[in-house]
Design brief:
- The chain is of the alpha+beta class and 296 residues long.
- The protein is 35% helix and 19% strand.
- The chain is built from nine helices and eleven strands.
- The chain has a six-stranded antiparallel beta sheet with strand order 1-2-3-4-6-5, covered by helices on one side. A three-stranded antiparallel beta sheet has the order 7-9-10.
- The longest helix is centred in the middle third of the chain and has 20 residues.
């Protein structure tokens, strides 16, 4: 993707008043691309995602950043996410098609998924062990690729794993999305440690609660929670739980025990990802993938 209108100098000064698109709106970029907005797909803390159609009739996803009191911070976050999508080209990472500013809003154009993993579980649950293993294999391939490029995702969850139609009579394709709070480390020997919070309140690794940091192995803990959800159909949290109750559930090791209680090799594998002490987890995404591929 090469777009001259991504030059940060184009956004100098105060942005114009934001005007969110509505269904039927046709957006024309400075480069001449056109996108027609169809509907809202999802809305989060800092962005809204729309389904759209490009001028060739292809369905795409439009991620639109919400206006911020600090435009410079929003711009930097937008540019960073674009750079990460461009850098992390992989079959299990969502692809970026375009990025632009329009009427005070920052857009990223992505490939359109069928839905996220939470949506998929509503129609496909229960999921058999073979599909859980396939999901784990694909996501570990994507995570290993990210880590090899010095990127920690920090926000892997059942809403940030997207589901795409695979080949006829084949598995779905699972892809990692949403790099809004991800961290890239450019120096290979630089310690890959973050001291800020993660995204979803349920997907908090024990090390962040107890010691105030996350790193590459925190992504593996997030993966463990995702696989536990898919394997059992639930997580040990509920909407009514307070932050303190969620943290107590995590630090007391409930997720790991739930995985162990499944009583299968796959449950045992997931329990390793969910160990509270990092040194007892798999020590890299690649190591976790290699172990999984050798399991009977």
């Amino acid at each position: 993707m090469a777009n001259p209108h991504l030059n940060p100098s184009l956004f100098a000064g105060a942005p114009p008043a934001a005007k969110f698109p509505t269904p039927g709106t046709v957006i024309t970029t400075l480069a001449g691309a056109q996108y027609r907005v169809v509907k809202v797909i999802n809305a989060g803390g800092y962005a809204v995602v729309y389904e759209g159609i490009n001028k060739f009739g292809n369905v795409i996803a439009l991620k639109v950043y919400k206006p911020s009191p600090d435009p410079a911070k929003s711009l930097n976050q937008w540019l960073q996410e674009i750079a990460l999508f461009q850098k992390l080209k992989h079959p299990n990472v969502v692809s970026i098609h375009d990025a632009f500013q329009c009427e005070g809003l920052l857009y990223i154009v992505l490939e359109r998924a069928w839905g996220n993993l939470s949506d998929y579980m509503k129609v496909a649950s229960p999921i058999n062990n073979a599909l859980v293993r396939e999901l784990a294999t694909q996501l570990l391939a994507g995570i290993s690729h990210m880590h090899a490029h010095g990127v920690i995702h920090r926000d892997l969850s059942i809403t940030n794993v997207l589901v795409f139609h695979g080949p006829p009579n084949g598995w779905p394709i699972f892809k990692i999305s949403d790099f809004g709070i991800s961290k890239a480390f450019l120096i290979p020997w630089q310690p890959k440690v973050c001291t800020t919070g993660t995204g979803h309140p349920w997907f908090v690794p024990p090390e962040l609660i107890q010691y105030g940091y996350t790193n590459e192995l925190s992504d593996l803990y997030h993966l463990g929670l995702i696989l536990l959800f898919v394997l059992t159909g639930h997580l040990p949290f509920s909407q009514g739980m307070t932050r303190q109750q969620i943290h107590a559930t995590i630090t007391s090791g409930v997720p790991r025990r739930l995985a162990e209680a499944v009583g299968t090799p796959l449950g045992g594998y997931i329990s390793v990802l969910l160990r509270r002490t990092q040194q007892y987890r798999f020590q890299s995404a690649q190591a976790a993938l290699n172990y999984l591929l050798k399991m009977p």
